[in-house]
């Protein structure tokens, strides 16, 4: 199956110019997503996940810019598209669910007005048809009395309800690709499960590709087909989600998994990765994780490339290996 989205050696910089190098928030990132598949893009805050999503949609604000690599969407080079062509892609064929729904919703317009405008921006349908589609989308994400809530303003919704509205807007056109940036963070467990189910159904029935940006490994284990782990702007491990989460190779991936509370025994302290993610302007020489890694040696002062292993890859010369009984 050919990939719907193909990101190759993506580099996104902030600042720079005038002969000075920029700061690489995304550095040499490559991955593919096929139709009907879900890729979980995971890592701590500041790892470059959201900037990667913004780069795909060309939503970077200055001084951010794509400094290298290619982004192919259904065979089209995103970098070569005009702004008008990007406007036609955004919302219709590529949708994004932002972490903060107030980035999406206009506080002075009703939810119904915003959703109807979103429908009619890409589809020439009547206002009645657009309103029906909007009402159905709100019901799909679990908003009660959707007909009445179309007349409400964003401030009349809770944070979790606003997030559900943002997800409903993303689903209006059944896009080919959805980039979801921490879309269930503000939702309770019941609604979270409902949203995950709807995304799974959308991928399976509508052949929609999904890039799910999160730090929650539990959600990724339930939803994603493949996983890409980011640290300090680089991919450190990729592969099938079941294989990576049960048998990680990179020490950072293993540390994230061990930090999940369910992995710890009752009465024992929670595992944690020592230290903090370094700022991108003060990354250590070589492997960015070496100052927090218990397996680091002098050899780690040279940045390793991604090492292939069957259907996965990892960026480490001292990989974690399961002990064979």
Briefly say what this structure is.
This protein has 325 residues and is an alpha/beta fold. It has ten helices and twelve strands. Strand 4 (64-73) and strand 5 form a beta hairpin.
Descriptive notes:
It is found in: Cell inner membrane. One of its GO terms (biological process) is peptide transport. GO terms for molecular function: ATP binding; ATP hydrolysis activity. The structure is a single chain. With 325 residues, the protein is an alpha/beta fold. The chain has a domain at 3-93 and 177-182 and 209-314: Rossmann fold (3-Layer(aba) Sandwich). It has ten helices and twelve strands. Helix 3 (111-122) crosses helix 4 (127-140). The protein is globular, with a radius of gyration of 21 Å.
């Amino acid at each position: 199956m050919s990939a719907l989205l193909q990101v190759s050696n993506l580099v996104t910089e902030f600042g720079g110019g005038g002969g000075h190098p920029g700061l690489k928030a995304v550095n040499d990132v490559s991955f593919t997503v096929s139709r009907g598949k879900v890729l979980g893009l995971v890592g701590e805050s500041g790892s470059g996940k959201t900037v990667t999503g913004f780069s795909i949609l060309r939503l970077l604000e200055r001084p951010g810019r794509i400094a290298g690599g290619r982004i192919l969407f259904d065979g089209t080079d995103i970098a070569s598209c005009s702004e008008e062509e990007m406007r036609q892609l955004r919302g219709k064929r590529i949708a994004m669910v932002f972490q903060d729904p107030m980035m999406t919703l206009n506080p002075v317009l009703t939810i119904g007005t915003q959703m109807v405008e979103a429908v009619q921006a890409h589809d020439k349908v009547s206002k009645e048809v657009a309103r029906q589609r909007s009402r159905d989308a709100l019901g799909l994400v679990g908003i009660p009395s959707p007909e009445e809530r179309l007349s409400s303003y964003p401030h009349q919704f809770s944070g979790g309800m606003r997030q559900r509205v943002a997800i409903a807007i993303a689903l209006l056109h059944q896009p080919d690709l959805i980039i979801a940036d921490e879309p269930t963070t503000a939702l309770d467990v019941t609604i979270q499960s409902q949203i995950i189910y709807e995304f799974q159904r959308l991928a399976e029935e509508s052949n929609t590709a999904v890039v799910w940006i999160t730090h929650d490994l539990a959600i990724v284990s339930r939803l994603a087909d493949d996983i890409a782990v980011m640290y300090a702007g680089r991919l450190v491990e990729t592969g099938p989600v079941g294989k990576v989460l049960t048998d990680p190779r990179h020490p950072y991936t293993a540390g994230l998994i061990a930090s999940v509370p369910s992995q710890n025994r009752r009465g024992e302290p929670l595992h944690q990765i020592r230290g903090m993610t370094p700022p991108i302007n003060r990354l250590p020489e070589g492997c960015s994780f070496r100052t927090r890694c218990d397996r680091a040696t002098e050899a780690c002062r040279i940045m390793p490339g991604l090492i292939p292993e069957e259907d996965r890859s990892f960026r480490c010369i001292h990989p974690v290996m399961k002990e064979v009984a």
